[in-house]
Amino acid sequence: MSQNQQAHLRVAKEPSQERQKRMIGDHFDRLASVADGTCDEKVVYTFVPGNLTELIGAFGMLPVLPEINALQSGMRQQSAGYIAEAEKSGHSEDVCTYVKCDLGMLKSGNVGPTGTRLPRPDLLLLSYTGCFTFMKWFELLREEYKCPVVMLHVPYQPDGVVTPAMRKYIVDQLETVVIPAMERIAGKKLDRDALSERLARSAQAEDDLVAVWESARHRPSPIDGYFGGVYYIGPIFSAFRGTEDAVAYYCELRAEVEGRIARGEGPTTPDGRLDDQRHRIVVEGPPNWTSFNEFWRMFSREHAVVVSSTYTRVGGLYDHGFRHDPKNPIETLADYCLGCYTNLGLPTRIDYIEQTIRTYEADGFLINSVKSCNSFSAGQLLILRELEKRTGVPGGFIESDLVDPRYFAKANIDNRLQSYFQMLDARRLRHAA
Amino acid sequence: MNVSVGIDLGSTTTKAVLLDEHGELVGRGITNSRSNYAAASAVARDEALTAARFSLIARALARVRGEAGGAARALIPDIEGAFRLELYRDELRYLGVRIERHLDNLTEAHLRAPLRGAAQAVLADMERTAPGLFLAGAQRKSDFFRDLAGAAFTAGSERESVDRQVSFERLVGLFDRAILDVEMRVPTRDFTVLLPEAVEHIRPQSAAHDPVRYALLSAAHEAANERIAEVAFAGTGYGRQTLPFPKEAVRSEILCHGRGAHRVFPGTRTVLDIGGQDTKAIQVDDIGVVTSFQMNDRCAAGCGRYLGYIADELNLGLHELGPLALRAQKIVRVNSTCTVFAGAELRERLALGERREDILAGLHRAILLRAMSLLARSGGVRSEFTFTGGVCKNPMATRLLRALVDEHYDSGLQLNIHPDSIFMGALGAAMYANDDLHAGRPSALRAQ
């Protein structure tokens, strides 16, 4: 491939990427118009796991997702300054860096990832409580914004089973606490038909997303299910699930991926297209955002493609059959909240990763243990051991952080990954012999 | 002789190992890495090539039958001692030259004469006592010129600074600057002169026919004249990316340490390597292929540099720490494996009146506890368990490791520590280079 062709591959964006960029830009423009008073839509701050986007949308309210803003700040190299700002105001080095990044951004003028100002929240909707930090985070934001918080308690799934009692517990809270609170703030009753229409569109997009995930069974894999995957989950895990835009995005993405399969092409990486895939890897744990492309290159340079990842399931395990059900709108929201990846107990997570390794015929699995997130990191070494025992597939383990660049030791992580991939090569040679 | 070269460019030391085409180890060399990786690599290779000449002497003498052959072979260590003494003297002379240069550049002119007198006296004494370091069977505390000469220069400076009323610090400062120049020099050696000279020194000509001398001289000439061609390379270690190797010749130190340790101890299943800036816990299978490993990522606490820093804090050589710690009467509890905090803890404990030996024992235990944690993370300790890396030369570290393994695992577990464990990474790299050679795709050094 000529240098020109390679350069072209690096810069050429596919239509779905352009569409996603437009969607995000439009959304933040709407938020900015609320911030500057030219629009009076209500604003709900909420988190990705167990998000109730269709419900928010059915009320005509606009969601803001602080974790997404934090990770975007990390990718734009803003997080170090924001974290320093939060630490200056008294937050310890040990606090989750998403929290500090968000608080630092707030203290620095609350300018969002697209460069426009974010509005104040009318409601802090804490719809997933499996992460204790979320609760503390909104407690801090409540002090800043003096606005109401609505909390939906989601029971943990210790053994991977959603019982009718769990579902009822959430449905009752939705019906008696969450929806009434949202009705008060929106100044109108919930339009249940509108909610069902949104849920039907969600299910349609979810079908296409699952087809995209499952495309990684092909060789070469047409997608990178981790580094590329975080872009693919953008619309569905943030402000757009249940919208026409999201349906169009996933339809377009699926067609692009199917085109790659037909042409025998791999995914585009920061260094060009990765058709020659020597290692098929499953990754557990969130990515590092401050050195995202460098981290990705450490894989692509070694011809490693990520065929699946657990991070891209934080908003739901659609590949296990769950779809939003427009016929049972409130129950389906309950099931969705219960099913996010970090709400699952260790045995269920292990089962899930084992199945993923087998489904995608992975050569290895890698754990990125991030300092900030105990929801992910606690027990990861046990996961590693158990998976090695069950599958015989070798695991690798690296440590970094979400958005604090001080915890991404590039040389060490690169060294570790090179060692890991060389180990896979050595083991393959041994098996061949 | 064609050789495959493995280089392990560590943060503290650089090692080189040469294997012949049959995979036999024929030479190895080690030097301080300091800040110049390219020079360190060249010096270690040069050392290994020098050692290979002695392998050739041994091979030549192995063919000599009868009593003369046996007697000649028995003299190889003496000849090597004589040879190394000459190298030491050569480096000592160069050290003197560099000290002179630094004296010439001294801005305080009035200090030049007294410092020059003291330095010359110290160097003369080092020259006089040098043979004692290289007698057959002499126990050298270190193989590094820096350590050997440094200890002698410091001792001499303590004496001369008092006798001549010059500043001890200024005198030692001259050494500190000149030694960097000495370490960066790759000497040129004419083995056709040096090897027969060493034989001459050990076995001078006598009136009667001496078959042992004849055998030695023949072997020395043969070894000196044989061409040693470096035909394949592989590099590993922290500085490996800076070596002039193509990407395919750069090997992970995990794989190299695992393979090297397995070659030396074929029963090895778990390897612990404590290097300058990382600690590795490695599990290998029955043929030495790595099956899993753990290393420290976010922080280098508790690695070899920790001991280096402590040695600096106490104004000791790194090689002196272990023997001193062995004299501990108790192990002072040290909590920190952070290098900088451990320094603070050391000073605090000293101020509280704790004995230096007892604190040192605690510092050693702190890094080994951290290593035990990594081992546990990698899947535990299985027999045989092989300890490699620079820290395994430290006798206190090895004693504590044995105790901790007994305490946490099986006391019947076989713990292997080889005197040459520090070379395991370079050995593994050389084995990979040899594989490449036999597969018909040897990697060569890029021209610099």
Structure description:
- The complex is a heterodimer of chains A (433) and B (448).
- With 433 residues, chain A is α/β, with parallel strands linked by helices.
- Chain A is 52% helix and 10% strand.
- Chain A folds into two domains: 11-187, Rossmann fold (3-Layer(aba) Sandwich), CATH 3.40.50.11890; 195-233 and 260-432, Rossmann fold, CATH 3.40.50.11900.
- Mean pLDDT of chain A is 93; it is low at 1-11.
- In chain B, α3 packs antiparallel against α4 (109-134), α12 runs antiparallel to α13 (356-378) and α13 (356-378) crosses α14 (395-408).
- The longest helix of chain B has 29 residues, at 76-104.
- The model of chain B has no long low-confidence stretch (mean pLDDT 88).
- Classes of the chains: A alpha/beta (433), B alpha/beta (448).
- The interface between A and B is medium-sized, with 23 and 21 residues.
